[in-house]
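Please check this:
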Amino acid sequence: MPVTHLEMAPVSNTPLAARSTAERIVAVFNRCFSSPKGLNTRLCGGFSEPYYRPAGGQQGHHQVEFTLDYAASALHEVAHWCVAGEVRRQLPDYGYWYAPDGRSAEQQAEFELVEVKPQALEWIFARACGLRFRVSADNLESGLGPSTSFKEAIWRQVQRYCAEGPNERARTFALALAGVFTQPDPLSGDIYQLRELS
């Protein structure tokens, strides 16, 4: 009998150092956002696929699930959570559609349009952890890597976040990560260079 997404058990086969980084990211997120009197949201790794599960049924908290114990997956999923508004955070996987790998050029362009803000936040979070950020086109089957315009849009959005400030959830998480990982201010625009995305 196939296992449904709701029954999927966490799995882990990643190297110890990567797990340690992911575990620290989880600890920071949960310290910032898991209080039932606050946003009541937990970050949890070890899953075969990322997913956002709102509170309901026997689960009394919202849960951001990321792939295996990959730090980059954790940061990417938190970025989506930070971008999602209050209404979307009440819906499974924020109510988004997802076209799987093998998207057409048109579908890929739409993907890039909606991924600018989350990937810009992911870059800020990665910098806050001292990790390298890689732009994700998430479309290997079609051979369509991230476009130059997508990379430029991500860099411009990072500059905007640094100049104007991201929302409170993103700011709280970025600064908390930088504190734990002893990194400089991740909201300083001059530390982000477009050439890093090549």
About this structure: The CA atoms of residues 49 and 182 lie 30 Å apart. The chain has five helices and three strands. Strands lie at 41-47, 51-53, 62-67.
